[in-house]
Amino acid sequence: MLCVLLAGCAVGPNFVRPQAPAVTRYSASGDPTTTGEAEGIVQRFTPGARVDPEWWRLFNSPKLEAVVSEALVGNPGLEAARASLAASEDDLRSGYGIFYPQIDADARGTRQRYSTVQLGQNTPGNVFNLFTLSASVSYVLDLFGGERRMLEGVAAQVDAQRATEQATYLTLIANIINTVVARAAYRAEIDATRELIELQHQQSHLAQIQFEAGTQPYSGVLSIESQLAANEATIPQLEQKLSESDDLLATLAGHTPADWRAPDVSLKELTLPQTLPVSLPSELVRQRPDVLLAEATAHAASANIGVATAALLPSVTLSGSYSASGTSTGQLFAANGRAWSFGADVAAPLFEGGTLWFRRRAALDTYRQSMSLYRQTVLSAFAQVADTLQALEHDAAALSAQDTALRTSQQALHLVQINYEAGLTTYLDVLNANAQYHEAMINDFQALAVRYQDTVALYVALGGGWWNLSGRQAH
Question: Which class would CATH give 10-100+143-314+353-468?
Fold first, then answer.
């Protein structure tokens, strides 16, 4: 009865899941409800709304969805994360065997020569066969819960691997979308820059003619040629970034760059999500994979304290064995060949030179460290959500300003063209206005790409909605 009571005890401490920070918003000044309007789109934030687990579909690009689907099947990093999770789950299943009796069986057959000289006799030795069947049973009484705490730590490692797999899943999708957006922006910038370079070539030619005619100083020619050279230098840089984007997408999809071609997706083919969820602060710590990973690490560290504590206490093992021997198989179960034993073994550490004591101290220190890292991870998570919400506000304002600059430069170009046709301005004025228009166009592409990528960052900051995806278990 005493053993049963003791078996229900387990040395502590018991792990208690940390509470979420007691805040109701992410920013000190309050969280935004909408962004400003840019390109006719206002993004609205809905607190507590469900995070779509397939949020990348909100960009309404079949080409983008195809790349994501291919990567979810063929990406080696995600495959490795899934295999690691499966291995940790199998380790946990194997650990449950400690709670069952360990039963072993053995069968032997030998031919021996018995030497009587070893007994001080001079009689001739004897040659005989010996057959033995034996079985043994042992069972460790987990009196102080050391084995249970060890298994608890293994279960926490499963949670850690699951969070790692979720983080890999989310990071993969975010990297694909960001790369597709960046690639589309690079392509648009290259096209606009080439048009701008062609215009500047014409400007340079006309400026050279005016210089030779004495109507413009040579400094004007040099200024145009300097701008031309600077813009020409950006083309190789943009083309290099475009090539790197293609190679990265191929790698993310699980292919070598030589046997896979990235789909051409333009910025116009993408739809910016207008209604964005914002998880409640109390829910964020249960959703983000990095926070769940830090929590699982702290849980495993807590369990290791129990394991180290139990190692300081006595352990009891029950064991029993039975064997049957005979000089022939027909005599295996004869009464004179039977043997059995049973008993209990109690072992307790008496002096280990401080090894076990300081091992427990080290486990306590590791637990304190893991809890500090958990709190740091939570703080970083809340800061990331706050930063992303503010970034989306600023992105809309910046894009709106770029749109104004683009429209203004387009209107200026239109007026200059009218004046040129009326003979009021020169063709060089038209080229200058056209160059300003193309520069504004390039800046607009860059601002739009940033707005898309910060929208992606918000879904990543919220955890990606994996807990709402069918077939994935929420914690």
Answer: mainly alpha
